[in-house]
From TrEMBL:
Its cofactor is Mg(2+). It catalyses: adenylyl-molybdopterin + molybdate = Mo-molybdopterin + AMP + H(+). This is Molybdopterin molybdenumtransferase. It is an enzyme of class 2 (transferase). One of its GO terms (biological process) is Mo-molybdopterin cofactor biosynthetic process. Catalyzes the insertion of molybdate into adenylated molybdopterin with the concomitant release of AMP. GO terms for cellular component: cytosol. It comes from the Bacteria. Pathway: Cofactor biosynthesis; molybdopterin biosynthesis. It comes from Xylanimonas protaetiae. NCBIfam families: Glp_gephyrin (NF045515). Pfam families: MoCF_biosynth (PF00994), MoeA_C (PF03454), MoeA_N (PF03453). One of its GO terms (molecular function) is molybdopterin molybdotransferase activity.
Length: 427
């Protein structure tokens, strides 16, 4: 199906979201071990994940009463009468380093206890080492405990500097809630609370098809009249940054080849094509997938677009098709405007919206008044936007050098230096 009118960018973005978001919401969750997530993270070969169900603590945190400070574990009642004029002097009992289970505190003694170590049974408070006399354990840091007696010049309230078992999380409490992206703090909480396995959202699987007989996958030698596939490389990285799993293929301008690749893509959630959507003689996507909409969007670059449904795999699953132009800048600008926000919202691992603000131009520019023009730029030391390259859709090196996308709205034919424009920060 061919569009007879030109959509606005906002309308097309809304249509992409209406088609793609429900498909992403329906993807199944999967159960993985925390150990597997950590092993993948250690290699750098992991995608950000988000919990699909609450993770509940297996054990309480902390698991035992422990000391919040280096100091002395005491009975608060023993120090009730302590004062500078009449300090309470006690014998020093066995030291309690972290990782050692102590015996009961002998009445009338004070047990040296280190940060995180268990508070001995019978003790109900900790006095900081700097509030004791002497204010050291005797041998200096790392030298153990050599003092045999200690004096305290002030009373202490029960519970002082004692982290009570379960005061952070009780066994059975939610330690990480459903919908939370798994970051460093969440991984630590899961490990500490004994959670061995979690239910996570499966990363969306996007099948990226770069169409064109002239294309060669990145890293392969070129033949006559061939070019390397920049779109597959760029979109693979962009999709990974929003938490997607990617399969990228190069497809020649051959309907049978295109249909063959789709037939093998059984678990794809979204099919993203580049190229083959314009008005040329060899537009394989438009010519083969004719149940989809193909038409124009009022923007530069990225005017030709496609959107619809496509059948994939032996099970004949129907999934969204999003079709971008083949020129690399057109494809990447289209990704930023139309698909990246939907995917980022679905995965929750990256902000859906790029940081946006307004900034003055450092130089004038011309723009087609009927279109939204998206230019590439950089901010100079004075916070002004300097354009990087021209408006052409093939200038990939200029996009690689850009740090902002400059949005010039429809209805504007020219802007002068000093005029303020909307920008999206992309790096």
């Amino acid at each position: 199906m061919t569009g007879t009118d030109r959509r606005s960018p906002a309308e097309h973005a809304a249509r992409v979201e209406a088609l793609v978001a429900p498909a992403l919401a329906a993807r199944p969750a999967e159960r993985v071990t925390v150990a597997a997530l950590l092993a993948a993270a250690a290699t750098g070969a992991t995608l950000p994940r988000r919990l699909a169900a609450d993770a509940r603590a297996v054990v309480a945190l902390p698991g035992f009463d422990n000391s919040q400070m280096d100091g002395y574990a005491v009975r608060a009642a023993d120090l009730a009468a302590a004062s500078p004029a009449a300090p309470v002097r006690q014998a020093v009992g066995p030291a309690v380093p972290a990782g050692v289970a102590p015996g009961p505190l002998v009445p009338g003694t004070a047990a040296p206890v280190m940060t995180g170590a268990p508070v001995p049974p019978g003790a109900d408070a900790v006095v900081r080492i700097e509030d004791a006399d002497p204010p050291t354990f005797g041998a200096g840091p790392g030298g153990g405990v050599t003092v045999t007696a200690v004096a305290f010049a002030a009373p202490v309230a029960p519970g002082t500097f004692v982290r009570v078992a379960g005061s952070d999380v009780a066994a059975g409490d939610v330690v990480v809630a459903a919908g939370t992206p798994l970051g460093a703090a969440q991984a630590g909480a899961l490990a500490a609370s004994g959670v061995a396995e979690v239910l996570v959202e499966r990363p969306p699987h996007v099948l990226v098809l770069s169409t064109g007989t002239e294309l060669v996958p990145a890293g392969r030698p070129l033949g006559p009249a061939q070019v390397r596939d920049a779109n597959g490389a760029a979109l693979t990285v962009g999709l990974g940054q929003v938490g997607c799993r990617v399969t990228a293929r190069v497809v020649p301008d051959d309907p049978a080849a295109l249909l063959g690749v789709l037939a093998e893509a059984g678990d794809a959630d979204v099919v993203l094509t580049t190229g083959g959507v314009s008005a040329g003689a060899y537009e394989v996507v438009r010519g083969t997938l004719d149940d989809a909409w193909f038409g124009g969007v009022a923007m530069q670059p990225g005017g030709p677009q496609g959107l619809g449904l496509v059948t994939v795999g032996d099970a004949r699953r129907v999934v969204p098709l999003v079709a971008f132009p083949g020129n690399p800048v057109s494809a990447l600008v289209s990704f930023e405007l139309f698909l990246r926000p939907v995917l980022a919202r679905a995965t929750g691992v990256a902000p859906a919206a790029r940081p946006a603000r307004r900034a003055p131009l450092a130089e004038p520019l011309d723009s087609p008044p009927a279109l939204l023009q998206v230019r590439r730029g950089r901010l100079d030391a004075d916070g002004r936007v300097r354009l990087v390259g021209g408006p052409g859709s093939h200038l990939l090196a200029h996009l690689a050098a850009a740090t902002v996308l400059v949005h010039v709205p429809a209805g504007v034919a020219r802007l002068e230096a000093g005029d303020v424009v909307d920008i999206w920060e992309i790096s």
